[in-house]
Every structure is written in C-alpha cells, then in structure tokens.
Amino acid sequence: SADKQKHDYQSDVARLRKIVINSLYSHKDVFLRELVSNANDALEKLRLTALTEKEVLGGAENLNITIKAVKEEDGPGRIIITDTGIGMTPEELTKNLGTLAKSGTTEFLQKAETSADTAGAGNLIGAFGLGFYSSFLVADHVYVSSVAAKSLKNPEPTQYVFSSSADESSFEVYPDPRGNTLGRGTEITLVLKDDALEYLETLRLTDLINKHSSFSSSFPIYLFTQRLETVPVEEAEVVETLAAKPESDDEDEVVIEEAAEEKEKTAETKTVMIDEWVQMNAQAPIWTRDPKTVTDEEYEAFYSATWKDYEKPLAWHHFTGDSGSGVSFRAIIYIPSRLDESYWREGLEGSNKDLRLMVKRTFITNSLGEDSLPKWASWVKVVIDADDLPLNVSRETLQSNKFLKQLRSIIVRRLLQTLARIQDEDKDKFEELSKVYANVFRLGAVEDVKSRDKLATLVRFPTTQRNNTSLDEYLENKKQGQKQIFYLADMGKSESDLAKSVFVEKLHARGYEVLLLGQPLDEVFVQNLKKWKKVPFQDVAKAGLKFGDEELDPKEEKEQQKQLTEEYKPLMDWLRKESNEIVRDVVISNRLVTSSCAIVADAHGYTANIEKMMSANNN
Ligand code: ADP
Ligand code: MG
Fold it and tell me: Which residues cross the membrane (predicted)?
C-alpha cells in the first residue's frame, strides 16, 4: 500500500548486521539481554520524561517488560518482548533501527572486519553489547511495533511497524494493521530461526533472564508461562481470576483449557492449563539502593542467589565510585566464608568467574580478560554496575576498555580497604578471616608487588611469646637496640617444635621474640619482603645473627672469639676431620645456651628448608 515505506539499510548497518550474524553465532544468547536492555532504557526514558511532562504516561503508570514465547502450533515459533516505555514514532523507527547515527561506528566496523580472528571480533562486539541487531542472531524476521508516548506535539500517536528479515538489505515501516494495540511502548516479535527454537522453552528463557537480566532491571520483568494443574472442579473458576496479566487494565487474557487427556479427569478434579505472568525480578537490585536501606539478610540473599553459595559471606562492602575516566559505578564486594576446594590446586593465572560487570543494570561480562584479578584476589565476588558506560557498540570501544582496565585496580584497592577495616574494627571477624585467608595474604604479598605491604600487614604469625602477631606488633615489641626481625622457618613443623629448636633458645632466653614460621609460604614470604619497616628479617638458623645487646664491643668480641678458637683448636680440628663430608666448617658460636652444638646453614646458602624441598624434588 501507499503507507508501506521501503528503506534500504545504510551500508554500515548492512555490514554490522553481517558481522553480528556471522561472528557472534556462538554468542546468540545475548539477544535477550540486549532487547531487555533496550526495553529498560525505553522505560527509563519514559520515567525521566514524565518528571516534566506528565502526559507521556497517558494516565497509565504501568512500567514493565513482558516476555512471551509462542509455540509453533500457532504459526512459526516466536518470542515477543514488550515494554511500556517511551516508544517510537515511525520516523524514530526508521532512524533508530535502520541507521547508525553514532560516531566511531565506521572505525569499529573496520577493526572488527579486519580482525584476524573472528573470536576476537566477537569479543570486541560482545564486550559491550550489540544492540538491536543481535535480534538477527536468532530471528529470520523481526517485527517491531511501536507507539510513541503521548506528548503535547503528538497527542494521538499511531502504532507503526518496522519489519525486516535477516537476509534482506532493506526494511519496511508501515502503520500497524492491528491498530493501536499497545497503548504505549514497543513490542518486538522475533520469528525464530529453525536452530533457535530452543528459546521457546520456558526453562531456557527463565535461565537466560535469571543469568542476565533479573536482579538487574529496576522495572518488573514478567515471563509468560503455562503449567498444568489438577484442581478440584469447584476451584477451577478461582484459578481463572488469580492469573491475570500483571498491572494490565485490559480484558483478562487468561485462557483455561481442559487438558487433552480425558483420563486425567475424575469426578471431583480436573486438569487445567494455567497461564501465568511470573515476575522474574521481584527484588529491586540491591546495589542500586542506598546501603543504609539494605538489610544484612538482603545482602546475604542476594549473595546466595547470585553466586549459588549457600554459606553466608564473611563480609561485604557496598560502595559507589568513579573510575577516574568519568565512569561512575556502584559495586558490592563480597568475601566468601571459604575458598573453593580447587583454589590451591589451580594455577597462578588469576581468573575470576565471580565478577558481574553490569552496565546500567544489564549484565555484560564476568571476565576482565587480560586484566583479570591477581590470583590472591581471584576468589572475590563482585557485582559492579557502571552508570554511564555506553552499552552499545557504536560508541568508542576504547573508552570502555579503559574502564575494564581500571576495574582490576579498583576492585583490588577496595578489597584491601575492606580487609584492613575488618582488621581494625572487628577482632573476632578478622580471626575468622585469617583462618580462611591467611595463606592467601602471604601469597598476595609474594606475587602482587603493588599490594605487598598492605597484604603483609594482614599476616599473623605465632612467636616464642604469643600467637597471632602481626609484623607491626612484632616491631612494637622489639628490644632496645634490636636491629633484626628474628624468625625460624621450617615448613610443616608445629609451633612448639619450632620453639624447641636450639636456634631459638638463646634469643628467647635473652627476651627476644622469634617468629615461628611453619606455613608453606612463610619462608618465601619473608624472603620476598626482606625487610619490614626497614628492619631486615634474620633467619636464626643462618649465620649473620646480630643481637644489639651484646655486652662486648665488636673489638673485644673479636678478641674473645680468637682466644676461644685457639683454646679449642684441637677439638675443632678433630670435629672438622670427622664431619668433613657433612658440614662446610666448624666454628665457635655464642648463640647457644643449653645445647652444646648446632648445625646452621650458610648465610648465603640455601636454608635447610629449601634444601629439603629440592632433595625431595630430585628423588
Ligand atoms: P543502543 O541501545 O545502544 O542505542 P540499540 O541497537 O540497542 O542501540 O538500539 C538502537 C536504538 O533503537 C536505541 O538507542 C533506541 O533509540 C531505539 N530502541 C531500541 N529498542 C527500543 C525500545 N524497546 N523502545 C524504544 N526505543 C528503542
Ligand atoms: Mg541497546
């Protein structure tokens, strides 16, 4: 008809559609999150406009998103996504869905097309959404019916259809032959490809919505479902009235059919098909709320629903921030009450599967790619929602990547702050935390140079004088003149065994505190740190021990040492001869109190511990 306007796609659009269809085939799930995201945007626009122009609501407040699958029995299988948002005029349908008006697109397209591996191009696009064109990943044909919100300029808007098939280079825009069925908003009908019929399954849809869109939209998302239920005959009428379309002013859409199978009928009951609109996101996304209004129970419920961990988290931190490149965000960081069993078995590449990066409440990715968190922090559970990061591909992707890069340091910094706060403010909680993460802190201090000092502060050690001593506490307790942090490291030994060591005796007798290091990562920890607050670590089983409270001045000590060496020369010679194969040298020592002799490691040699590990590996 004369009303039907045929338009050729802009050449860029044609190319984008091709890239989307060809390179993102394996990511076709994204269509739903993109369309829900658009619906959410349209509702947000409406809500914003209504603040100053009440008439856009047209008297109907209902702001929601509905998703319905129509099975093949009633024509081709299709999915219908409807929102009651701002809607589009026919001009807007043409402009918004048929052209790419935004800058940077051409550049992006070149990059995506010349990118050697299509997976790379896929990630490029997938990282920040592909918008409306992702519809064609699953649909042969897409119909968009839309009626713009009423305004002073447009008091009687007409419902129009945008119609396009996946393999055509043109689209049509025409008045909806059904008239104004929507009242306000947009209805997107995806006529599914044969290989996308899986999306008709309620379970598949539920899964997708739960994964990508629930907990995320501030507007209710309803999914149309049907189930069979056997009810007493007299109750069948009641069921009918319960199952009304949400917030709909229109006529009841409920259909009740008798089940096909006659034999299920008995005298008193019958099986009925119940149509229901089930709300997928009953809870408002908690990270968008003021932390003061969120209860501990809500934080815990969100945690378990999101990460499927039914043990309560140890702690969380809910904050807003600014990336520094102009991207503001809200986030919650959770500290689980345990580490995955596989944590210490897995390699050192920090991977993080438990991150939820959202943009405007739409899930985008759980991977920071190359900028993933360091191993020590990879267990953290994070939801982070950027407010003004473009969701679409048509803005500068580089800017987006910059934010991704910043995320790693933002998360690490906030996590360290949270850990430090618990240490300072809640002794009991910190003790719990230490039980789970003590070795994680050691690992971090070794692998993450930037965070080394902050993590080392969190590590606690048993000593000859007490338990759970931090390095700072150790230094506070040091004796006058003490210039070294004394430790004895022997992997796998208990504190009491370490304390019994002959090396520790003299120091302990003189009132020095000695760190007793029996944890696997202890030795590599002190070797990496070397010093704490400028005080060097000293292995008491190694040469180089200095006390600082020696009664003799160095000259006198040397003299005394010389005398003793002469006096005991015959014994020493004999010992050297006898132990020739076993030790490098025999010397007079002032480090022992009750034991008569000790074998010590060379100051620059391997310590006994590492020697043990090496010989174990050589066997
Ligand atoms: P983006 O959302 O990043 O702008 P899309 O390709 O997802 O890119 O959508 C293109 C444009 O189409 C949107 O900017 C919007 O103007 C319009 N649009 C898409 N879906 C809807 C909708 N459900 N209601 C109103 N406008 C929509
Ligand atoms: Mg979009």
Answer: none
Angle at 473 between CA 469 and CA 474, to 5 degrees: 80
DSSP state of 479: P
Looking up tokens 């993590």, which residue turns up? 455
DSSP 36-96: HHHHHHHHHHHHHHHHH-GGGGTT-----EEEEEE-GGGSS-EEEEEE-SS---HHHHHHH
Quick one: three-class SS letters along 82-117?
EECCCCCCHHHHHHHHHCCCCCCHHHHHHHHHHCCC
Instruction: For ligand 1, say whether the CB of 85 is within 6 Å of any of its atoms.
Output: yes
| Residue owning the nearest CA to atom 14 of ligand 1 | 96
**In sequence order, which residues have a C-beta less than 8 Å from that of residue 51 and are 6 or more positions away?**
none
* pTM summary value: 0.55
What's the gap between Cα 402 and its chain centre? 17
pLDDT of 253-307, one tens digit each?
444 444 444 554 456 888 888 888 999 887 678 898 899 988 898 888 778 767 7
Q: DSSP E strands: which ranges in 97-235?
A: 139-147, 160-165, 170-175, 185-192, 221-232
- Residues with CB under 5 Å of ion ligand 2 are 38, 131
Pairing of strands 515-517, 531-532: unpaired
* Contacts with 30 (C-beta within 8 Å, 6 or more apart), sequence order: 24, 126, 129, 130, 134, 137
